[in-house]
Design brief:
The complex is a heterotrimer of chains A (about 600), B (about 100) and C (about 170).
Chain A lengths: L5 H15 L6 H29 L3 E7 L9 E6 L1 H24 L6 H20 L3 H19 L6 H32 L4 H11 L5 H17 L8 H4 L5 H10 L4 H8 L1 H5 L2 H24 L3 H21 L3 H28 L12 H4 L1 H14 L6 H14 L5 H27 L13 H16 L21 H23 L5 H6 L1 H11 L4 H21 L2 H20 L7 H23 L1
Chain B lengths: L7 H21 L3 H26 L3 H31 L13
Helix pairs in contact in B: 1-2, 2-3
Chain C lengths: L1 H21 L3 H21 L3 H26 L3 H10 L6 H17 L14 H8 L4 H35 L1
Helix pairs in contact in C: 1-2, 2-3
Chain lengths: ~600, ~100, ~170
């Protein structure tokens, strides 16, 4: 299929057109172009996916050679296998729904043109990232989505806090990107190529399992993945990134970009299999992140921050899956998570939209009857997030937990941690539902969502419910991990845990059987709540550890201490000038006398040398 | 009439004495005219040394350098005396300790 | 006998120079200076450099000193100027210059200790000087001519303005 290049081309061309219009395009046209281009791309992806499912054939398309530097000849080329098709479907499918939703959400914003330009650019870059056949092109897309993330987090740039959040997102992910760039350089110098498939083949033939080089290379790649996917210790940017418009959070910071790290590890899984210590680190990072973020989510009161922490937590599950070699399960969870988290974000965006930019969940309430579509969407999304039985999240999370259980040695620990995370997920997701949609109303919604908002919600509801029935065409991509041993006890516990979470949430927040207030108001409880509300106080920690020393250093350097040396020379010269000026008396006889004095001295020296 | 055989030491000592006298006058006198005269004495002493050196080898070169010194002295006196007139006009004095406008 | 004449001339030259540089009256000083120059001309003649001796008298003692005379007459310092000069010559003003000059002289004498040879005792005729001057030293002649020309232009420039201003001032009053 020769027209594969059209898929990233549509959004890219649209982005260029929108940017060139410099905001003077009529908003109807901008919306049509912005959403339509992604829709066209989605249609192309659907055709491609149908063809791929029919023949299961890997497609490679070379457009041109990017550059030739010595023996380094990266190409602009696409590699389409099952994993790519899955990722492309998510990006364009969910992306199109979010674009459609954005039309209504952003209709009254004066810079809707700029919005769609950035969004389309993002979709193009993200498609490039997943379609790339070599790591350099992947890195181009990787940086492209990072740029768009920065631009969109700081979309409402007139508020300095948004700009600060955008910079934080950019800088923190840049730390990971630097590690990744180093990893790419290491891979190229060691293996001589960056084309992914030849690279994996070369690694398999040159390196032994457990060698230092694959461990180092994968650790560097993991650094990039950790930064982009907001995992420990580089997760701090994602909660702040909620400063952007809500559809942006849905598309970039939930469904697609933040899962790029998962994609990267899955794409280069051959390397990670050669480095068992790194892979174990992936698992532990995932576990720690999912627990930490889940606890933090319990205490938040900004609706978007709760969802942001839950995103971090869910990506933690994906990392856990990658860490235990359950790559297909990880990607499966990525897909279902894209469905239900996009749904949740869009529903939350609708609530915010209808309540006139209200973010605090404690000022919402009783919206069940007033915004029924949103309520059902949110309920379904939360159910999937909490992995209640027969929702999509249930199938994917269950697969991950089962894979974790079967790992010899550390497996049960990982499983237990994941289970605790699942319990917490149940609690915080239904806490959100109960507080926002039940109880007494504080605000009347100012408006009802129109069809452009409602349609994506309904479609995503269907996907979040039934997504678990999808069979992803990943069989040819990842090695078969063997049969799951049917262990009924483990499965029953997995099923029961989210329900237990739901029950606890009900008791605490709806039934009021146990007073949450007494818990929170006890000294320990309030301290813990503040601790979790601040995201485990990691931001102040990083501030003290890195940011403030760095800015202090920068301030110090701004005074240019090295200049002190040169300024010192100048000072000495000026001082000497002022001293020596005293000899410039203007008296002729004084000059003559000093000259004679010098003459006497010179002749004396000459005499001494002659002697 | 042939030249004399005079010890070089004596001739050059005479030149040195004259030079020192000129130097002493230069440092001592405050009147610009006397300073110029001292310069003349010093130039003359140098010329004497050159002529003596030429006489030692019986060659003309020493006298030729004397000629050069002569023209330098002539030019210097012409310009120097012109300056003396200007100094007198501007400062109403020939005392070089008064004319010190170049003080830094 | 003739050697005695040389030492006599040397003594005259030194004495006349010393007197010239210590006079308070510029005109007197000038006369002593001329005497000194004439004595130096005698030594030139005795060393076998008659051409240099003639030039010393004609140009130095003749032309250059006459210039001094003209300027001294133009400035017309007067009686109080002479008393002032006398004041300046007295006392501590001598210490540092005398010390430095003596030091330099000492050094020169030390440097000349080992010069046992004498002058050649032959005449270098004006003809020989002329041949050398316009032979190997023709470039020096050119340089000297340039120097004299610039001296002429400079002196004319400096002196002319002085004269013109004075005339104008005189006319105005």
């Amino acid at each position: 299929m020769a027209s594969i290049w059209l898929i990233p081309f549509f959004p890219l061309a649209s982005a260029v057109l929108l940017l060139l219009s410099t905001g003077r395009m009529p908003r109807q046209f901008a919306a049509l172009l912005g959403a339509g281009s992604v829709g066209l791309a989605a249609v192309c992806v659907a055709l491609l996916a149908r063809a791929f499912l029919a023949d299961q054939e890997v497609r490679e398309v070379t457009l041109w050679t990017w550059m030739t530097v010595g023996n380094f000849t990266p190409r602009i080329a696409f590699y389409i296998d099952g994993l790519t098709v899955v990722m492309m479907s998510v990006i364009t499918g969910v992306g199109f729904l979010i674009h459609l939703y954005s039309i209504e959400f952003m209709w009254e914003d004066e810079s809707i043109c700029r919005y769609f330009a950035y969004m389309n650019l993002f979709v193009a870059a993200m498609l490039l990232l997943v379609m790339a056949d070599n790591l350099l092109l992947l890195y181009l897309g990787w940086e492209g989505v990072g740029l768009c993330s920065y631009l969109l987090v700081g979309f409402w740039y007139r508020d300095p806090n948004n700009g600060k959040a955008a910079r934080k997102a950019f800088v923190v992910t840049r730390i990971g990107d630097t590690a990744m760039a180093l990893g790419l350089m290491l891979l190229f110098t060691e293996l001589g190529t960056l084309d992914i498939q030849p690279l994996l083949a070369a690694a398999n033939s040159q390196w032994q399992t457990g060698d230092t080089l694959p461990i180092l290379a994968t650790a560097l790649l993991l650094g990039g993945a950790v930064g982009k996917s907001a995992q420990l210790p580089l997760h701090t940017w994602l909660p702040d990134a909620m400063a952007g418009p809500t559809p942006v959070s849905a598309l970039i910071h939930a469904a697609t970009m933040v899962t790029a790290g998962v994609y990267l590890i899955a794409r280069t899984f051959g390397l990670f299999l050669l480095a068992p210590p790194t892979q174990e680190a992936v698992a532990w990072i995932g576990l720690l992140t999912l627990l930490l973020a889940a606890f933090a989510a319990l205490a938040q009161h900004d609706i978007k921050r709760i969802l942001a922490y839950s995103t971090i937590s869910q990506i933690g599950y994906m990392f856990l899956a990658l860490g235990v070699s359950a790559f297909a399960s990880g990607i499966f969870h990525l897909v279902t998570h894209a469905f239900f988290k996009a749904l949740l974000f869009l529903a939350a965006g609708t609530v915010i939209h209808c309540l006139h930019h209200e973010h605090n969940i404690f000022r919402m309430g009783g919206l069940r009857t007033r915004l029924p579509v949103v309520f059902w969407s949110f309920l379904i999304g939360s159910a999937a997030l909490a992995a209640l039985p027969f929702t999509s999240g249930f199938y994917s999370k269950d697969a991950i937990l089962l894979s974790a259980w079967e790992v010899p040695g550390i497996g049960p620990w990982l499983w237990a941690g994941g289970l605790l995370g699942a319990l917490l997920t149940g609690i915080y997701s239904f806490r959100l539902v109960f507080i926002v949609f039940f109880g007494e109303a504080h605000h009347e919604p100012e408006r009802q969502p129109g069809w452009k908002m409602a349609l994506p919600l309904v479609l995503l509801c269907a996907l979040a419910l039934a997504g678990g029935l999808l069979v992803l065409p990943l069989a040819g991509v990842f090695p078969h991990t063997g049969h799951h041993q049917p262990n009924h006890l483990v499965e029953y516990i997995s099923i029961g845990t989210p329900l237990l979470g739901l029950l606890i949430a009900y008791l605490l927040f709806l039934g009021r059987q146990v007073s949450i207030d007494t818990l929170v108001e006890s000294p320990g409880g309030s301290a813990l709540r503040d601790f979790w509300l601040g995201g485990w106080r990691i931001d102040p920690l990083y501030d003290a550890l890195w940011v403030r020393p760095y800015t202090a250093l920068a301030h110090w350097w701004r005074k240019e201490p090295l200049d002190g040396v040169y300024n010192g020379v100048v000072t000495v010269v000026q001082w000497a000038h002022h001293k020596l000026i005293a000899t410039q008396t203007g008296e002729l006889r004084w000059y003559a006398t000093t000259m004679v004095f010098g003459l006497v001295l010179l002749v004396a020296i000459m005499l001494r040398n002659a002697a | 009439m042939g030249g004399l055989q005079i010890p070089m030491e004596h001739v050059l000592t005479l030149a040195g004495l004259l030079f020192s006298c000129g130097l002493l006058g230069l440092m001592l006198r405050r009147n610009i005219i006397f300073m110029l005269m001292s310069l003349e004495v010093m130039l003359n002493a140098a010329a004497l040394a050159f002529v003596a050196a030429g006489a030692k080898w019986g060659q003309a070169d020493g006298q030729i350098i004397f000629l050069l010194i002569l023209s330098v002295a002539a030019a210097e006196v012409a310009v120097g005396l012109g300056l003396v007139l200007q100094i007198q006009r501007r400062f109403k004095t020939l005392d070089m300790d008064q004319a010190r406008r170049l003080r830094g | 006998m003739m050697e005695t004449l040389f030492y006599l001339a040397a003594v005259v030259a030194l004495a006349a120079t010393g007197l010239a540089l210590t006079r308070a009256n510029a005109a007197h000083a000038l006369i002593y200076l001329i005497v000194s120059l004439l004595a130096v001309a005698v030594t030139f003649f005795l060393m076998g450099a008659p051409f240099a001796a003639a030039l010393e008298i004609v140009i130095y003692a003749g032309a250059i000193m006459v210039l001094f005379v003209f300027v001294i007459m133009m400035l017309n310092v007067g009686e109080e100027g002479i008393t002032r000069e006398r004041e300046w010559l007295s006392g501590r003003n001598w210490i540092v210059p005398g010390l430095l000059a003596a030091l330099l002289l000492l050094e020169l004498v030390i440097a000349l200790r080992h010069a046992p040879t004498t002058t050649a005792g032959v005449d270098v005729t004006p003809k020989a000087v002329g041949l050398t001057l316009f032979g190997p030293y023709v470039l020096a002649v050119e340089i000297a001519s340039m120097l004299l020309l610039s001296g002429l232009v400079g002196a004319y420039h400096l002196g002319r303005r002085f004269i013109v201003r004075r005339e104008r001032r005189g006319g105005a009053s």
